[in-house]
Amino acid sequence: MESENVAPEVDIVIPVYNEEAQIAQSVITLRQYLLQNFPYSWRITIADNTSKDQTWQIACQLEQSFPGEVKALHLDQKGRGRALRYAWACSDAQLVSYMDVGLSTGLDSFLPLIAPLITGQSLLATGSRLARGAKIKRQFKREVISRVYNLLIKLVFGQVFSNAQCGFKAVRKDLVMPMLALIENNEWFFNSELLLLAERNHLRIHEVAVDWIEDPDTRVNIRKTVIEDLKGLWRMRLKFWLGGGKLQEIPVRQGIQVRPGTEYLPTRPRRERVLDYAASSLFETGKRRAGFPGQFGKSCRKNFYN
């Protein structure tokens, strides 16, 4: 790691709310992994969403124990998106990222997430639980809800990314600042809004298939989140119809590139891609529910991108 006063290349934000049971172990595990496997300078930032337990005190202890490597931030209001907005805006790193406190996503996916942003090949990167090669373990109900939600996004927006909600993302700091001015949501829909705005502005997105195990202590209120997401999708669709959601300028000198119209875009008609995605989702969900292997679902998803 660099000196405490030197800005890191990568800032890893962990939003937390009442996570006293696992915050210390998660940060220690992540720190050890970064020391042994990550070639770029880094910092772990704990963004506390006004926790009611001892989370903030533990975060401060971690900051004192690992100066220059761990930083603790405290917010007076709840909201996953609000925590990310504040932590990313305050960061002095070249790249800002985040992951869930439970480390549900395998850490071996972190370097593949960051590397294309370091080299300039991409501007924003996201993990995907639904991309080819992803291995996940989660409740059947949440699996179905996730696939239906992402299918709905494809029907309404025709976007390329396969998974809007995965809590594993990274973005260039010089890009995220103007994007934060356009993002309205401060809760769970922040994830989807970030990616939809990136697609709206034809920004290069790098997607990483991840290994992911559901955190049994998850704080997600499914019903509330579903309602929030549906309202957010309608708001975004209306905004785009009215010509909104566009960055005022994308300066080349800041390393922000406009993706060519023929690059990274599916060449097949949207209707065919949506039908293939729906068939793949139904098959994969049923396969995981029944517990038998198969390649048909992977083949369908492969066709979606061709």
Structure commentary:
There is one protein chain. This protein starts with 9 loop residues before the first strand and ends with a helix. The longest helix has 21 residues, at 270-290. It has helices at residues 23-37, 55-65, 80-90, 110-119, 140-157, 173-180, 190-200, 222-241, 270-290, 296-304, and strands at residues 10-16, 42-49, 70-75, 95-99, 124-128, 135-137, 168-172, 205-209, 211-213. With 306 residues, it is α/β, with parallel strands linked by helices. Mean pLDDT is 82; it is low at 251-270 and 292-306. The strands form two sheets. It has a seven-stranded mixed β-sheet with strand order 3-2-1-4-7-5-8, sandwiched between helices. It has ten helices and nine strands. It has a single domain (10-304), classed as Spore Coat Polysaccharide Biosynthesis Protein SpsA, Chain A (Alpha-Beta Complex), CATH 3.90.550.10. Helix 5 (140-157) packs antiparallel against helix 9 (270-290) and helix 7 packs parallel to helix 8 (222-241). Strand 1 (10-16), helix 1 and strand 2 form a beta-alpha-beta unit.
Notable traits:
alpha/beta, globular, 9 strands, 306 residues, 15% strand, Spore Coat Polysaccharide Biosynthesis Protein SpsA, Chain A, 7-stranded mixed beta sheet, disordered C terminus, two-stranded parallel sheet
